[in-house]
Amino acid sequence: MHFQLDPDTEAYRDGVRSYLAKVMTPESEERIYRSGVSHDDGFADGLVNEGYFAPSWAAEFGGQNRDAWDEQVLREELMRAEAPMYLSETTRMVASIIRDVGTPEMKDRILRGAMKGDITIALGFTEPECGSDVAAATTKAVRDGDQWVINGSKMFTTNGHIADYVFLLARTSPDKPKHKGLTMFLVPRNSAGFEAQAVWTLSGERTNITFYSDVRISDEWRVGDVDDGWQVMGLSLQDEHASGWGPHLSRLLQHAEQWAATTEADDGTLQLAKTDVRRRIARVAMEDEVSRLLLRRCVWMTETGQTPIAEGPMSKVFSTEALVRASQDIMELVGPDAARSYFEPTAPEQGRFEYLTRFALGTTIYAGTSEVQRSIIAQRGLGLPR
Fold first, then answer.
1. Number of H-type helices and E-type strands within the chain
2. Which of 34, 171, 234, 235 is the most buried (most CB within 10 A)?
3. Of 137, 128, 111, nearest to 53 (Cα)?
4. How many CB atoms lie within 10 A of CB 213?
5. pLDDT by residue (tens digit) across 175-211?
6. Of 325, 383, 327, nearest to 355 (Cα)?
């Protein structure tokens, strides 16, 4: 096992960094912050044109046949820059599932458009009354000839108001056990009976509650076999569970170091000269390093043909909870000034401390709560009973 990047991957990372430094302007960051929407068509087009959309995909689909390490450093840099890439990421995730289990017709219809940025796909898993128990979905899809009629609602369908499709989990056999009677569909957003209403999170992000009222779609939009939705969705959940949020911790560390190196204390010395300041920043740096190593272990496992079943959740739990700890610790360290927001001209580090404190709390919920991740680690990693 190794965690060091080889020279070619380092060069690739440096190229990504240089590109993001050029396109992530203060104006674009403010536009994203004000809208609460982590997507920008121009930015997505730029990723495609530069070969940064799905570099590990085969060239026949618009990729570059790069390895998982190049893909990983790309994700790290995009996340560290807080780039508007969430819809691009979910699109790539669903496209990879369609590549694996979709019909030839669906592959032909979706894959090339998704890889060129012409098609976008949001996730429709969680429901208002089900919380983290995704398999308890009650949104129904009833077969009517060669069509399906869908009724129900989904919560936290981020970008569902602008995506072309929603990757929807629906119950098709109510009489079967909850994990056995589910099917996945790709629902066109322009379908009659579909509606998206804005929901604003603590971090200022816009997500949506989406409604499906007698939405009719052809069977050609089904992804995978009928009642096999839990296995199909598991392909995406495994990808999400292996996500790490360490790059946001790296960004927080960067701003904390800049603040400490440029801000004077009451006695006229720089904050960085104080033992408590260095101690707290060092603690963030250690957790940043551990977060990076945990995530890179997942990449190494993938590259060596292993599946990071428990290791992915380990990375996700540690990095998100470390981000919560660190953001609150730095907020306390900086003091009342840290509560000043992005739009306050006197806010230290452009209000990043205040924003990351709010943002961090949601990361322990995204892609499965910490409780869900710990259950996976216990049951599938350690072999403990439910």
1. 12, 8
2. 171
3. 111
4. 13
5. 998 889 999 999 999 999 999 999 999 999 999 999 9
6. 327
In the structure encoding, which two tokens stand for residue 106, read together?
């669906």
AA letter at 379: Q
Token output for 347? 């806010």
Q: Which of 240, 264, 289, 344 is catalytic?
A: 240
210: amino acid identity, one letter: T
Q: What is the dihedral of CA 16, 19, 20, 26, to 10 degrees?
A: 170
Task: Identify the structural domains of the chain with CATH numbers, from first to last.
Answer: 7-84 (1.10.540.10), 122-227 (2.40.110.10), 243-382 (1.20.140.10)
Q: Is 240 a catalytic residue?
A: yes
* Stated pTM of the model: 0.91
Terminal-residue alpha carbon distance, the chain:
31
Residue 101 makes CB contacts below 8 A (sequence gap 6+) with 223, 224, 232, 235
Tens of pLDDT, residues 274-286 = 999 999 999 999 9
The pair of structure tokens assigned to 124 is 């429709």
Number of residues that make up the chain = 386
CA 231 to CA 106: how far, in whole Å?
Answer: 18
Query: Rounded to whole angstroms, how far apart are CA atoms 357 and 355?
Result: 5
Residue 206 pairs in a beta bridge with 200
Task: Assign 307 to helix, strand or coil.
Answer: coil
Q: Beta partners for 357? A: none
